[in-house]
Amino acid sequence: MTHEQIYADLSSYALGALDAHEREEITAHLAAGCVGCERELASWRELVGVIALGGQDAPPPNLKLALFERVRASGAGARPPATVVSLRRWPLVALALAATALLAIGIARDVQWRGTLNGQQQMVAQLRADLTAAHGNLDRVAQQLTAQEKDLTSLRAVLAAAQESLAIVQAPGLRLVRLKEAPQAQPGDGHVLISANGRALFYAFDLKPLPPEKAYELWWITEKEGPINAGVFRPDERGLGRIEVAVPTGAGAVQAAAVTIEPAAGVPKPTGPMILLGNI
What we know:
By secondary structure, the protein is α+β, with helices and mostly antiparallel strands.
């Protein structure tokens, strides 16, 4: 029980109207030294004591003296006889009035306590709603940060590729080899930039889109080993294909470059139709 609940139940505690568990909690609270609750309980016990006295048959001590004085005054003719109220009826009236007052005070305090409790519950509900909204905002911010990190990673990859391509273009001894459509092939065009450090940058233009299970494959035609796989690529929606590759060594002179249509994973030797061809 909270301090407010205990304070509101002190009237019932004074009357002995609580169950054993509630009474034990209040007793422990009072034993802990709560001055406010002790003072309030003393007031309730005083009122309960008055009610208990009102239930006895014996009238108040000064009532007998007042009665004798009233009889003496009546015998002297000083005033007409007054109506005498039954001595047993007075305690019942006092008891009823005190019980009514006690009930009214208890109800008022209960209403006040419930109003305070409702206000606290509404405050807790609002705090929970605010906390839920804050969590939602944090989730959205986290998602935005994740998306930005992915974009940053992609930009870094693009920048790294651009720097590698720029290094090939800026290298000394750069050679440009043009590739044209092979005989009986669809129209196409391409070129390969070959640097002296053994790196090459290949571009193809106006390539047709392929089904998912197919891809374009670039080949180096060497003097000793014939076609050597350089890599596979797929063009974008504009028909532009790009791939950065290494120039083979140990296979004799590279005599030509060619492009064929092969399975998407690539093959060790050409199996599909040749699309582009250029002599080096």
